[in-house]
């Protein structure tokens, strides 16, 4: 259940081989010249330009490949700015400073990041490329998730530190196609497997076919997985990706979710990344973080113990992450995941190879690293990782006290602070937090606090099936 980083004591240098560039590039991650050749050969006819939105979804446009090459690749394309100021249903809401009815919901230029070009083998003759929303000053908008993560990487770099990240994601596969109002369980969608298949290599044929197609599609897209495994919950799977750069890890994650959903739909299944799709089910987004300084691992000492930076990083995570919860637990369902016995944390604790803790120290020697277990599968990876890095920077600059490591069941660690229990509690702490404002700036904090309030307002007046089950005939 963990990503294993490479030995970081001596990182390999990038190749300086004199071999032709085309031999050094992955064919699944084409250059612009490669793309032009693919188009000329009739292999590619569509380019999807995607702007990751506040929820980590890919939003954008499909372009004819020649039009993209001739008009979009160099200059970008106009898209409505509200992509970065809506709820999960793309519903416009008042209260965002970025755009509004009063401003006419104007456009913003989305500039392709050509380093993210990749063949989307799950879509016919299509490549995907991620983009950045750029303002009139030709700078990326501060509230855009990719730019928020870049900001935290820059702050970390000011201390001479660089992050390497491995992402581990859990999700649940159900038989059938979900529609609004469809029940989950008997009479509706049921998991693709009926039993606990944790660590099993005996998968039902439909699940085995899905895993093979997913693994193959991701490899063709230049995103080979480290491992796929089934979990203890029926229908739940976990996919682990190799270590890499922080921004690249998040870029790959949002593309992975796009592929996972598309391939599930073609197989007559539904993939859900809800943090808790059913009572008692918890799906996480675990972030494995290593820090390097001048190419050397910074979290362990030469003896493989926690360094001073490692201790500061953990202390910062424990003290700051409660204030940053809307960035890694963005909706009301996010908070239903954290329950005793769920393998999701309920207390702000840390420990060595302890899966009941919020921060797990794992690995050995130069591979010693931190696993952040707070984010759920519903988290926007850019924002969740930005929150973790901001907390680490807080620990390095402010040196909060590090509590003792938890050596037993962290669910019983009554002396440790609780993780945020509700979105309402989390939003209030985030909105007024000096830590959040120092890390992200007041404009970003207000933007995402308002997004959290929209979620709260939506659920405040919605009557749920659980309420009817409990009260309908008993009041």
Essential attributes:
475 residues; alpha+beta; Ubiquitin-like (UB roll); Creatine Kinase, Chain A, domain 2; 2 domains; ten-stranded mixed β-sheet; six-stranded mixed β-sheet; 18% strand; globular
Quick summary:
This protein is of the alpha+beta class. The protein has two domains: 24-141, Glutamine synthetase, N-terminal domain (Ubiquitin-like (UB roll)), CATH 3.10.20; 151-422, Glutamine synthetase/guanido kinase, catalytic domain (Creatine Kinase, Chain A, domain 2, 2-Layer Sandwich), CATH 3.30.590. The protein has 13 helices and 16 strands.
Overall pLDDT, averaged? 92
**Can you tell me the CATH superfamily of the largest domain?**
Glutamine synthetase/guanido kinase, catalytic domain
From the alpha-carbon coordinates, what is the Rg to the nearest angstrom?
A: 22 Å
Q: SSE order in H/E notation?
A: HHEEHEEEEHEHEEEHEEEHHEEEHHHHH
CATH topology of the largest domain: Creatine Kinase, Chain A, domain 2
Low-confidence stretches: 6-27
Principal-axes shape call: globular
Structural class: alpha+beta
Number of domains: 2
CATH architecture of the largest domain: 2-Layer Sandwich
Structure description:
The chain is an alpha+beta fold and 475 residues long. The chain folds into 2 domains: 24-141, Roll (Ubiquitin-like (UB roll)), CATH 3.10.20; 151-422, 2-Layer Sandwich (Creatine Kinase, Chain A, domain 2), CATH 3.30.590.10. The chain has 13 helices and 16 strands. It has helices at residues 21-24, 32-40, 65-72, 145-157, 205-220, 246-266, 308-320, 325-328, 381-398, 423-431, 434-440, 442-460, 465-471, and strands at residues 46-52, 58-64, 77-80, 107-112, 118-119, 126-134, 162-175, 227-230, 236-240, 244-245, 269-272, 285-293, 296-297, 350-352, 359-362, 369-372. The strands form 2 sheets. Strands 7, 8, 9, 10, 11, 12, 13, 14, 15 and 16 form a 10-stranded mixed beta sheet that branches. Strands 1, 2, 3, 4, 5 and 6 form a 6-stranded mixed beta sheet that branches. Strand 8 and strand 9 (236-240) form a beta hairpin. The longest helix is centred in the middle third of the chain and has 21 residues, at 246-266. The radius of gyration is 22 Å and the shape is globular.
